[in-house]
Every structure is written in structure tokens, then in C-alpha cells.
Design brief:
This protein is of the alpha+beta class and about 290 residues long. The chain has nine helices and eleven strands. An eight-stranded mixed β-sheet has the order 4-3-2-6-5-1-10-11. A three-stranded antiparallel β-sheet has the order 7-8-9, covered by helices on one side. Bound molecules: aspartic acid.
Length: about 290
């Protein structure tokens, strides 16, 4: 009994539905949805699921919701097409898989996990990723104009908002995992790839920390934000909360805004952001699900 309690007390979870502007009309549905997704993640972790399975399952729920700029909620790029990016990483084994500029598949995070498990590579992009996704029987989007919620966005990328999804989890064995999935910046140039699918920029997990980022991807790439959190913890012995804050500050210095969720090998997650808001949910010390925007 004691052993079970100790193991359950290891578990931790945080998720985000993107950083950006506070849109009051969208908040209620997002808050309710984030709460229910976190509750499902909590149950999975309590039942002994691995952190890797939890981050994938929850990322799929977030992609399917149509409430965030990921999966179904992705907006068209400047060519009117839907190109999605995702990454999933297992901190215990350092296995990682990613897809970039993927068209025609509902769950980029599923394809990313297939890349991780069924190829010798880390990332597949564009046509090659799509051929691979078909071979792996990943669910296709048959009719983009019926499936995706947002159509005909004509604004320029620099005017536009963010809204990626991400999940970090620690399981009963203390293993960490992270997943990030996005439709990218609304109205982005065709072929543009942001930080979300790049291990070390928008997603990272190792034995110390699991990180998922959201915000203006170009700046997270320049600052290597996700890996920077881990590096600060490893080399400067900076505690998690201060490491995440400092990494985000360095990204901000490059000119961008956004936020991170980060979870260490012990304790609670930290979720700093420099944007007006960041949709997020987590399990607190008492095992209660919290949501904030
Ligand atoms: N970081 C994502 C990107 O630049 C956008 C976001 O977080 O919403 O593609």
C-alpha cells in the first residue's frame, strides 16, 4: 500500500492551449475543455500509464477539439493550405519524433510518435511525412474545408495570434515526457516551420525536465528555449522555476512573446509566460485540477 501511495505521489501533469491574446468569448469553452483533458490525464497517470502515452493521448484530445491553433483548429497558411507541426519526446530514453509542414492528417502528434517508433529518424517533413503517415494508417483529413474550423484567414503573420497545444507529464515511475502540436502562426508563409516540432526549441524532455513552449516560434528557435531550461538546470544548477523563467526571458530578449510549461523530476510544474495570457491546466499538490488563462 505504502509503495502504491509513493508511486502515485510521483505523478504530475501540465498542459497548455497556447499563449497569446485573451479572447473572452472563447475562454469558457477552453477552460471547460482543458479541465476535462487534464482529468483524463490524471486518471491515466493514476492507472499507471506511461508519461509518453499520456502526453500523446492528451495532445490528440487537444488537436481534435478545434478550440486551439492545432489539429482541427489550425488556420490556413498564406497559400490557403493547412500545414501542421508536432513533436513528442520521451525523457527516459531520449527518443523523439517530429513532423513538419504535414498536410492531410488529423493528429500530427500521432504521426510524430510513429516517426519516433518506426523510423531511424527524428523528423519527417512535407510529402515524405504524408507518405509515411499513410503507411502507418494515421487518420487522414478527407475534406480540409469541412474539417478545419478556420477558413480564409488573410492577415499577415506579424499581425497574428498564436495558440499551439502542449502537454508535459511525469508518471508513477518518475519518467518525463513532452508533446507540442501546432498549426503554426495563423497566416504564416507556405512552408514555414516554427519551434513546435524542433526538439530543444518548442519541445524537450530528458531525465531532468519536460518542456513544451508556445508563442512566436522564430524567437523560441533563436533562444533554443526548451533545451535552455534543461541546460540551466544541469550546468548552473538553477532550480526548475528560475530556469524556466530565465530561458523565457532570453527568448523575450530576442523580441518575441510566449510561454512555457515545464515539469521537473520532482515537484509541481512551472508555467511562466510573457504574453497577455496562456491557456493552461495542471494538477496541484492535493491532486486537484486547476485551469487558468
Ligand atoms: N510556437 C508556434 C509557432 O510558432 C505558435 C504558437 O505557439 O501558437 O509555430
Amino acid at each position: 500500500m505504502k509503495n502504491i501511495k509513493t508511486k502515485q505521489s510521483n505523478i504530475a501533469l501540465a498542459l497548455h492551449g497556447g499563449a497569446g491574446k485573451y479572447v473572452k468569448s472563447e475562454q469558457d469553452a477552453q477552460i471547460e475543455h482543458l479541465h476535462s483533458v487534464a482529468a483524463q490525464g490524471h486518471c491515466m497517470l493514476m492507472d499507471g500509464s506511461t508519461a509518453l502515452d499520456v502526453v500523446e493521448a492528451l495532445a490528440i484530445l487537444l488537436e481534435d477539439a478545434g478550440l486551439y491553433v492545432a489539429g482541427k483548429g489550425t488556420g490556413p497558411n498564406s497559400a490557403g493550405e493547412y500545414e501542421l507541426d508536432a513533436c513528442i519526446m520521451d525523457g527516459h530514453s531520449r527518443s523523439v519524433g517530429a513532423v513538419a509542414a504535414l498536410k492531410g492528417y488529423k493528429n500530427p502528434v500521432r504521426v510524430a510518435r510513429c516517426v519516433m517508433e518506426h523510423t531511424p529518424h527524428v523528423m519527417l517533413a512535407g510529402r515524405g511525412a504524408e507518405t509515411f503517415a499513410a503507411l502507418q494508417n494515421c487518420a487522414p483529413v478527407e475534406k480540409p474545408l469541412e474539417y478545419y474550423i478556420l477558413h480564409g484567414v488573410t492577415r499577415l503573420p506579424h499581425e497574428l495570434d498564436t495558440g499551439t497545444i502542449g502537454v508535459v507529464a511525469r508518471d508513477s515511475q518518475g519518467r518525463l515526457a513532452a508533446a507540442t502540436s501546432t498549426g503554426g502562426l495563423l497566416g504564416k508563409m507556405a512552408g514555414r516551420v516554427g519551434d513546435s516540432p524542433l526538439p530543444g526549441a518548442g519541445c524537450w524532455a530528458d531525465e531532468r525536465v519536460a518542456v513544451s513552449c508556445t508563442g512566436q516560434g522564430e524567437f523560441f528557435i533563436k533562444a533554443a528555449t526548451a533545451a535552455d531550461v534543461s541546460a540551466r538546470m544541469a550546468y548552473a544548477k538553477t532550480p526548475l522555476k528560475a530556469a524556466a523563467k530565465a530561458a523565457l526571458k532570453d527568448m523575450q530578449k530576442q523580441g518575441g512573446y510566449g510561454g512555457v510549461i515545464a515539469l521537473g523530476s520532482t515537484g509541481q510544474p512551472t508555467m511562466p509566460f510573457t504574453s497577455q495570457g496562456m491557456r493552461r491546466a495542471w494538477i496541484d499538490k492535493a491532486g486537484t485540477i486547476k485551469v487558468d488563462v
